[in-house]
Amino acid sequence: METIAIPAINFAPIMPEVILSIFAMVLLLVNVFVPSEHKAYLGYLSLVGLIVAGFTLIGGWGVPLSAFNDSVVRDNFSIFFKGIFLLTVGMSILISDQYFKREECNLGELYPLLLFATVGMMLMASGTDLMTIFLGLEVLSVSLYILAGFNRANVKSNEAGLKYFLLGAFSTGFLLYGMALTYGATGTTRVVKIAEYVSQNGVVAQNPMFVIGMLLMAVGFSFKIAAAPFHMWTPDVYEGAPTPMTAFMSAGPKAAGFAAFMRVAIIAFPSLKADWSDLLWILAVLTMTIGNLIALNQDNIKRMLAYSSIAHAGYALVGFTAGNAEGTAGILFYMLSYAFMNIGAFAIIVLVGKKGEANNNVMDYAGFGTKHPVLALAMAVFLFSLAGMPPTAGFIGKFYLFSGAIKAGYVWLAIIGVLNSAASVYYYLRVMVYMYMKDPVEEFDWMKLTPAVAICIIIAVVGVLLPGVVPAFLLNLAQQAVLL
Amino acid sequence: MTSYPILTILIFLPLAGCLCLAPVWSRRAAVRPIALGFAVAELALAGWLLVTAPGMPTAPGAPAGYFLWEDAAWIERFGIRYLLGMDGISLLMGALTAFITVVAMAVSWRAVTERTALHYFLILLMESGIMGVFLALDLVLFYLFWEVMLIPMFFLIGIWGHGRRIYSAVKFFLYTLAGSLLMLLAIIGVYLIHGDATGTYTFALPLLAKAPIAHAAAPWLFGAFLLAFAIKFPLFPVHTWLPDAHTDAPTAGSVILAALLLKTGAYGLVRFGYPLFPEAARGFTPLLSVLAVVGILYASWIAYAQEDMKRMVAYSSVGHMGFVALGIASWSPVALSGSILQMVNHGVTTGALFALVGMLDERTDTRELAAYGGVWGKAPKLAFFFLLFAMASAGLPGLNNFTGEFLILAGVFRTTPAAAAIAFIGIVLPLIYTVRLVQEVLFQTERQPLQLPDVTLREGALLAVLALIGVSIGVHPKPLLDILKVPVALLTGTAP
């Protein structure tokens, strides 16, 4: 009798993805039976899913494993990033219920979509085949398009969803075309095989098909991490999307973009590092400078943080340009810290905001410091961390990135980085000026602080201050997780 | 006795005070005594050290001159340590910090009526930061405290300030931050270059200073340090934040700014700048001397033209700190001791002057020179102190500033006579604007009726203590100079 040889499949490397997919599908079913005023339960259930997935992650630390014919891998690098994703999604879920209840679009589909987005991000981090990475990116993107436009009744949210979809689809096209050309030039989509091919055929860099493929992939990834000049979608999408989703998008998918970008650039084209670095420092300088300069005169705080998030991608690109252990570990550390500080800030924005995406201007924070001293203090901590002041995680992260750049000889890039950082302080201070130094235009309403949001803020404050004071543990983890 | 982590206590006691304010946040009556209690406890500890420490031997494991020493691992991956040490210089600066903090609390006792808890919280937080700056010997730890002390001052000026308080607060913050960020890069540069050369990657000052950097980048690195310190100092072309910050700051903010924050720049140059880059620093001596002298003359000139008392005192600060810079630039034992002594003197004198201007402002709600006159007749005690500190500021012999300026000039005459000769004019010029200040405020006939009650018991006691310190340093500076003798000799390499 003829038997079909079924290859032994090892699910261990994608265990978290499997668990989250199952949870997402179960949630879709359960959603039907949960009355709309109790959709929060779906949130709690998805948190359970995230925690379970988290447990399956921990065991894999330090035990590299690849499966599915080498198209996914479980290494420290992917585990570190998956940790960031779980955290990002978990914190965003914590601030979602209060927001969506207020906006009266408390739909249960939110949570499964978030989980699917997480699965996509995880595949991007652990994919070692261009196809797997692309698959992950598509799963993520499609979920994000819906999430950005989730507030159906709000015009800006609709605009954000549509804009994101159009530009995102466009950028995906670039990426896919780049992958196709790379495949055409090298005959493989496995990043390791591409690296082998490149090292065996040194002249490959002269092959225009390969070079264009590489560039197009860089463009595609730059869209995803919102690096200038491919950042145009960011402000509108971040401003229009529901605030918790903005929080999520600014931290999670950006980190996923970096994960995939780094794996492709560092593993597949190590011998072309010089060429990559030239491309990357231009991106870094543009991204930091454009992000910071435009953020300087933004009145809408979500928009301001959108530009600031562009600038922060620029700082991470400084570490990427350096390409050494410090620089890349710096990116890992920075992405984690950024998740804490940025989502923390967005949690406060959710609290201060009012129905219909109102009260989102910097001026609306006048008097916040006197009215809600504790929450304002938390906001100040997040803003100082974003500004890179010690003793916060933001400072240690920048320190790490810039020392990587200096060590690799990019002193001038580090100087541009710190000057940018100094300029950025202005717009973070502006929020604090309003919070503490201006009298409120109208009285602050009594603000509802649900336990979920409070927990999110506490996690964020701890996540910003603890690594700022005793960073040794996280630094070691980041160092163990670099690809080099 | 060194079994207690005294330095850690010095740094974190005020911070503990911050936390203790939280439970009584909205009760003004409870906030002030608690905050003052912590500040006084800190002062008692610092005072006790001032009395006992000079006789102490070098602490185990510490380089010569450091009688208190704490060393613990912090971020081992980068070679960053929790490294604190106290020698004579840190001792004087630490004692000054503890003292001025109490003064700052006392002057704002009545003046601050809104958000009192936050005010005292920030003052205590700042005390922690400044104390840390004076005690940290690891570059990253130093940088951390250096930045931490910025934040409370930003809020002090921005919340309780006058006039264009927000503009001034932001200007102060951005100006100093831009300088210090470049210093951060230089710190990383020192770490990498030193590590590559010696194989030990460390941020610890004693190790770094043992093998000074002979790399071609050394002048650039020193330049970055110098820029950060010059902004804090403030030296001539980068001083423009100071008049604004001082004028718009509340009294407590001005006192701390003048008496303490400016000192951190000079201290940083003495403690880190010169020992890390002895060669490069020599190359910068002419530049530093010229900037210092220009600053002395320019500031005196501008001060004369001011119509706002506070602005006038602020510009006088720039001049006085120019003398400190001049003494450091000459790097001779006499001038350097003079500079450090002058830092203490300036802290006491200018702190007192700002307190006095604050008292006048509190009473009459104006700081315009033209609005005053006849204060001597109305409030003789206040006027007496005003005259005393104004004269001290002008460098009258027998008062504290004279001793510092004299030592600086005596030292500088040996190394760069030309600079000293020009700077000598800088001793005369303050007399001109000080006489104008005193004449217009105290002795001029009363130009408009002023409600001017004399000093209260609290104010009088405060001013009397400041005056006592000023006079005793002026008459008998030897105890302080004795404390400085060993560290200055070690720094300048003239130890026997």
Detailed description of the structure:
The complex is a heterodimer of chains A (484) and B (496). Chain A is mostly helical. Chain A has one domain (12-480). In chain A, 73% of the residues lie in helices and 1% in strands. Chain A has 19 helices and two strands. Chain A has helices spanning 15-31, 40-58, 76-102, 110-126, 130-148, 155-186, 191-200, 208-225, 233-240, 243-268, 273-295, 301-322, 325-352, 368-371, 373-387, 393-407, 411-437, 451-469, 472-480; strands at residues 65-67, 72-74. Chain A has a two-stranded antiparallel ribbon with strand order 1-2. Chain A starts with 14 loop residues before the first helix and ends with a helix. Chain B has 496 residues and is mainly α. Chain B has one domain (6-492). Chain B is built from 20 helices and two strands. Chain B has helices spanning 6-21, 28-52, 88-107, 116-135, 139-148, 150-160, 165-198, 205-210, 218-232, 241-248, 251-276, 278-304, 309-330, 333-364, 375-378, 380-394, 400-415, 417-443, 457-475, 478-492; strands at 68-75, 80-86. At the A-B interface, α16, α17 and α19 of A face α5, α6 and α7 of B.
Low-confidence stretches of chain A: none
* Fraction of residues in helix of chain B: over 70%
Radius of gyration of chain B over all CA atoms, rounded: 21 Å
How many strand elements of chain B?
2
Which strands sit side by side, in order, in the main sheet of chain A? 1-2
β-strand percent of chain A reads under 5%
Side-by-side strand order of the widest sheet of chain B:
1-2
Family (chain A): Belongs to the complex I subunit 2 family.
GO biological process, one term (chain A): ATP synthesis coupled electron transport
Membrane topology (chain A): Multi-pass membrane protein
Domain NADH:quinone oxidoreductase/Mrp antiporter transmembrane (chain A): 128-421
